[in-house]
Amino acid sequence: MSNNSLGIGVVGYGYWGPNLVRNFASNPSARVVCVSDLDPQRLADSRRLYPNLTTTCAYEDIIKNPEVDAVVIATPVHTHYELALAALKAGKHVLVEKPLASSADMARRLIDEADRRGLTLMVDHTFLYTPAIQKIRELLLKDELGQIYYYDSTRSSLGLFQRDVNVIWDLAVHDISIIHYILEEEPVAVSATGSCHVAGSPENMAHITLFFDSPCVAHVSVNWLSPIKVRQTFVGGSNKMIVYDDLEPTEKIKVYDKGITLNGTTEDAKEFRIGYRAGDMWAPHISTKEALQTEVEHFIDCACNGTKPISNGISALRVIEVLEAASRSIAQQGRPIVLKAPQQIWKRARATA
Amino acid sequence: MSNNSLGIGVVGYGYWGPNLVRNFASNPSARVVCVSDLDPQRLADSRRLYPNLTTTCAYEDIIKNPEVDAVVIATPVHTHYELALAALKAGKHVLVEKPLASSADMARRLIDEADRRGLTLMVDHTFLYTPAIQKIRELLLKDELGQIYYYDSTRSSLGLFQRDVNVIWDLAVHDISIIHYILEEEPVAVSATGSCHVAGSPENMAHITLFFDSPCVAHVSVNWLSPIKVRQTFVGGSNKMIVYDDLEPTEKIKVYDKGITLNGTTEDAKEFRIGYRAGDMWAPHISTKEALQTEVEHFIDCACNGTKPISNGISALRVIEVLEAASRSIAQQGRPIVLKAPQQIWKRARATA
Amino acid sequence: MSNNSLGIGVVGYGYWGPNLVRNFASNPSARVVCVSDLDPQRLADSRRLYPNLTTTCAYEDIIKNPEVDAVVIATPVHTHYELALAALKAGKHVLVEKPLASSADMARRLIDEADRRGLTLMVDHTFLYTPAIQKIRELLLKDELGQIYYYDSTRSSLGLFQRDVNVIWDLAVHDISIIHYILEEEPVAVSATGSCHVAGSPENMAHITLFFDSPCVAHVSVNWLSPIKVRQTFVGGSNKMIVYDDLEPTEKIKVYDKGITLNGTTEDAKEFRIGYRAGDMWAPHISTKEALQTEVEHFIDCACNGTKPISNGISALRVIEVLEAASRSIAQQGRPIVLKAPQQIWKRARATA
Amino acid sequence: MSNNSLGIGVVGYGYWGPNLVRNFASNPSARVVCVSDLDPQRLADSRRLYPNLTTTCAYEDIIKNPEVDAVVIATPVHTHYELALAALKAGKHVLVEKPLASSADMARRLIDEADRRGLTLMVDHTFLYTPAIQKIRELLLKDELGQIYYYDSTRSSLGLFQRDVNVIWDLAVHDISIIHYILEEEPVAVSATGSCHVAGSPENMAHITLFFDSPCVAHVSVNWLSPIKVRQTFVGGSNKMIVYDDLEPTEKIKVYDKGITLNGTTEDAKEFRIGYRAGDMWAPHISTKEALQTEVEHFIDCACNGTKPISNGISALRVIEVLEAASRSIAQQGRPIVLKAPQQIWKRARATA
Q1: What is the mean pLDDT of residues D20-28?
Q2: Which residues of chain B have pLDDT under 50?
Q3: Which of B338, C7, C50, C133 is the most buried (most CB within 10 A)?
Q4: A91 conformational bin, left if phi > 0, alpha if psi -120 to 50, beta if neither
């Protein structure tokens, strides 16, 4: 690390790359050295905003650049593995856009490479760094909700079809990473269904159920073909329940002091109305700090100090294992797939986290 | 039929019965003769509102009453079969609260009994008679949406647990009947997951995917343990898409002139942004006529004139077959269940509908 | 009072009368003896629901009926004075639909008559008995909001034009009574503007500003010609602010822990951004008890025990004085009208309240 | 104009200036030459984004710069007149942030100076260039709404107090300019009330009624001390009505095919329910083009070709005259102020527009 600041090389300046560059550029502990992209027009765009930037069409220029301490990869999913591996082999810390790689095997090889070299490998699961998800995790850690009954999320909108991954690798990946982060429990099986409405395109609509050893169940609904944008998550517990709407400008999280009470004595032949509590609703104030700013600070800290990232390789691998299992289930119209938790790696992750 | 009006006997005066009595009582072609319930207090309530009513704790009094031309059954699900069968055997037309019976076998026996005696057998799938669903069906029949891609519905709220049926028999039954009615296509397989969070209670949360021979897919999410009430349905087509929110007081249906256009020439390595059309939104005026009023008129017409009801025994059976298959899938964590369409009965239904 | 229950006679069975009858009928301390209306069809409707009811087209039958202890008046505004006066003179307690009378003079004469005879005179300012307004009053009494800066309310919808009163006597009357009730401060002047868009009809749209001795200001916007229904009130204080939306099914009141903090040291030539606090939002659970049920209980209690009603004659008079002043201001395009608080009467009201 | 592009100098780089610089910088027909601000930090910010920019703390450097063809002023309101006059005298076209000046007299002098020199004088009434307002104007021009009954707008939020102007000069100025633009009718009188809740600060809350010769009435409610942001405008007509919510991300404008029909024959003693039509609602697709981009294109076109701007000096003057009259009315608690339309200037405006 030269000049007391982390030298950053960014590969890919398409949809997400400019956000990464902007956040690294405004962080005083980092310095964006170089940007690469296959499209010269995008590189010209980047130079207009950051005149001191070196740009290149060859990502090798970044990986070989001795001023680059860390490589940030914001390219299509199918290129993640090759680029990240090359960067690690060149001794660079790596931050990869989600998902970490196209397969669990590839993810494992990246984890091994980073571990062997003592380098930071982090995946850009941006939502983990949003004030909203951090608040929800805080509420769950404080046991505000009681026993968690379910996580139920809908993430849909119109128009941004991906070419190399289906809708679960693009959208459900957010929820899988959130579920792991806030529930701190590993799913044991997954059932998923999906469908494709555009010939030659991957699935654009899917529904995933995750089973756990606990009574908790998680469901994720994703759709690239919705007339309106929806980003809504329900978390139900025995004491309280959360409705999290990421499209709300200010009151993103609403905590409902509602639930059921069991009334075992009713003799009603038709139905027993389980009693329900209906108390106050409370919307905690949520910081408006940009998630990517927090994430970039965290990555720099991890790279400089050797701390294990929150969204480390192992947690990225866990997400990919679920995505792979869900894809297999989709191909079999919902047949449940047992997730064989790779015990060795998990244990290592726990030990070092 | 005496006095030029249909004599009605109502069995069950709990949650839904009063609505049925009120609508039959205000229909000039019907006359509520008698109400039965096991709870004397409820009967007293009914007499307070309708002083000319005969009440009884014994449903046999209704079935034997020669002034009763038609029996309306609003009792717990597990009693439907026995009560409906007794009424049919006594020569009465029958309207049964949804679902028609606890099993497909029972439903088939009721259909046979009604057919043999030339009596009207109708199930109270109320939503089919709402102005909103009738408008959606009209839009689909006019091919306003183009090819139908999906039906995706969420139906959740807090507190009304049923004792003898799980949440899909209570809530998803609405969507299954709606799907059959508006899509006019039979699902060929179902995958469903569900969970129970109250010991000794049936499943209170479930997610169902229905597969069709066409590219259409249907998904239904139901939950008795949601902090807020949700009644929202998306219907996506190749030309337009509908968002139907039954909780909206006036603009229940919104039709979006939105969709995707394929742009095959892009060379973008990262993603191909399928083009999307974003046109006007349109909320057709929806009548505020109470669905049950329409349904009661329809039942009276069918009973008096021998017309086949929209929600006839066969369509009720189709719904139950899906519910049974979904329940089997839930027990196997989402394993898909093939729906063997009972061809003979279907054909008969088609022929007579 | 015969039979240990208050005998009730209801004059007027149009839009609001049935709600009054229903609530008195279900109160065990009252007994609806008789209903009058000029329209025989309405009387038939009432008999259908309440077969033991006596009905008449002549309100004198009610006033003369010795079984009637209290007369409830739900007729057009211009008839309130005459009917209420006759009832009081016959020794009956009186509950009158809002507003109490067509003019402050008439209201004063009714107050005097009731006082002289020791009878209860109450006006049906229903909103004062809603759980939402009672909660807001409670929050203000506990000084949760700090110094009150403003009350700003919008009340609009489409279609229910009144013939004998304009929109402020129909809709703003609610807000004026609420303002008096929750602020406990009398306005000292009023400026109002209004307009009429239907020839020969009274004003259908109006905006009223009320000035107080304190820095508080109140504004009320009412409209009979709005495409959508709005019932929204903002109450701003130095510590917290309330948004009350009466159309919300459950979270009617939201309390925002927001406000400004003064930052006097800024030297910015363009603007000084007064600092602002943005804290949590909180929606207290609101009971779903029907306001009219609470009001009817209160009226019965006042009539039986001689308690002063919350919405007594004096508070009704205060509302009418504001309505009259607002009407005068409307006629002069907003010219402010000073409200001469009738000191004697006020003092009496305070002394006895 | 050198280099076939309009040389732009921007005075003021605070809240709004950066948006102006960004839009001029991205317009191929313009070239931002120089930016001035009293705050060196802001100038450093501007240079970081636009490294080729000249910056200065002295606005005279801009006005004297021969490469500057047009001066864009984004400074506090009380400085507008002096800066704009100096720029015009130096032969520059001028675009001034709203409002044009602190008084109508100043505005008139600027108009005269620009006219005398044949220079473009334009005010940044940004809303006139939003796709939403242009769509509303289009609907009114096509007579979609029938006779216009009212314009009723609420514009409120928390926290951005201005030092040199009150809330009507800051927020209501938008509505006044919109009203003039879409109604194409001049108000004949104004009544306004306002209040100040921060000692030493201008009014932070106000309500304005504008009267017209036609039956149309306009009302504007503005508030700097609201717990939630509101940007909602109702436009009511005899045939249709519009609800325009600027905070909606996509469906900003909803057109309701609703209204009243007169039913003169009713004999109801209580009320005559004027009949009402309740038809479809329609939300026309609105372009997402940034208003400031359209405005900047228009300014460049006017400066280069001598076209009269939509938001020209005369229309800016009309707005200020209303603001001045409203301020006078506020000082007198709502007393109506007659607007003497300055006939000569109006006629000239009409002739040249």
Answers
A1: 93
A2: 266, 268-271, 342-346, 348, 350-351, 353
A3: C133
A4: left
Pairing verdict, β C6-11 and C70-73: parallel
Paired with C158 in beta bridges are: C225
Closest-CA distance of chain D to residue A49, Å:
6
Distance CA D84, CA D93 (A): 9
Query: Which residue on chain D is closest to C258 by alpha carbon?
Result: D227
The chain A residue lying nearest D22, using CA atoms, is A49
Probe site for chain C from B47, B48, B52, B228 (most C CB atoms < 10 A): B48
Report the top-level CATH class of A6-125+291-312. Answer: alpha beta
Give the Cα-Cα-Cα angle C239, C253, B253 (nearest 5 degrees): 135
The arithmetic mean of pLDDT across residues C88-113, rounded, is 98
Q: Does an H or E element contain C185, and which?
A: none
Domain D128-290+326-331 fold: Dihydrodipicolinate Reductase; domain 2 (3.30.360)
D252-to-B61, C331, D171 alpha-carbon distances in Å: 60, 35, 19
Q: Please list every residue in chain C whose beta carbon sits closer than 8 Å to the beta carbon of residue D215.
A: 195-197
Q: Which residue among A251, A279, A284 sits closest to C285, beta carbon to beta carbon?
A: A279
Quick one: which of A216, A27, A242, A208 has its CA closest to A133?
A242
* A-C contacts (CB, under 8 Å): 28
Which of chain B's residues have a Cβ under 8 Å away from the Cβ of D282? 280-283
pLDDT (tens digit per residue) in B339-353: 965 444 445 454 454
B6-125+291-311: what fold? Rossmann fold (3.40.50)
**Could you tell me the CATH superfamily of domain C6-126+291-311?**
NAD(P)-binding Rossmann-like Domain (3.40.50.720)
Q: Which CATH architecture has domain B128-289+326-331?
A: 2-Layer Sandwich (3.30)
Residues of chain A in contact with residue C279, where contact means CB-CB under 8 angstroms, are 285
Complex ipTM value: 0.91
Q: Nearest-CA distance from B290 to chain D in Å?
A: 17
More confident residue, D277 or B351: D277
Lowest-confidence pick of A157-171, C76-90, C179-193, D97-111? A157-171
Domain range list for chain C = 6-126+291-311, 128-290+325-331
CB pair distance less than 8 Å for D280 and B278: no
- Do residues C253 and C242 lie in contact, with contact meaning Cβ atoms separated by under 8 Å? yes
State the CB neighbour count (10 A cutoff) for residue B305: 8
Which among D198, D207, D242 is the nearest to C274, CB-wise? Answer: D198
Least CB-CB distance to B51: which of C51, C229, C247? C51
- B221 vs A271: CB contact, 8 Å cut-off? no
What is the pairing mode between strands C70-73 and C189-195?
unpaired
Residues of C in contact with A251 (CB under 8 A): 281
Of D159, D217, D228, the CB nearest to C276: D159
Strands B205-211 and A189-195: unpaired
pLDDT, tens digit (0-9, with 9 covering 90-100), for D42-95: 999 888 778 788 999 999 999 999 999 999 999 999 999 999 999 999 999 999
Looking at residue B98, what is its pLDDT?
96
pTM tops 0.90: yes
CATH number for the C128-290+325-331 domain, one of 3.10.20.30, 3.30.360.10, 1.10.10.10, 3.30.1360.120? 3.30.360.10
| Domain D2-126+291-311+344-352 part of CATH 3.40.50.720 | yes
Flag if A284 and C283 touch (Cβ within 8 Å): no
The C-alpha atoms of residue A288 and residue A248 are separated, in whole angstroms, by 12
Residue A2's pLDDT is 53
> Chain A closest CA to B258's CA: distance in Å?
6
The predicted structure's pLDDT at residue B348: 47
Of A149, A228, A242, the CB nearest to B243: A228
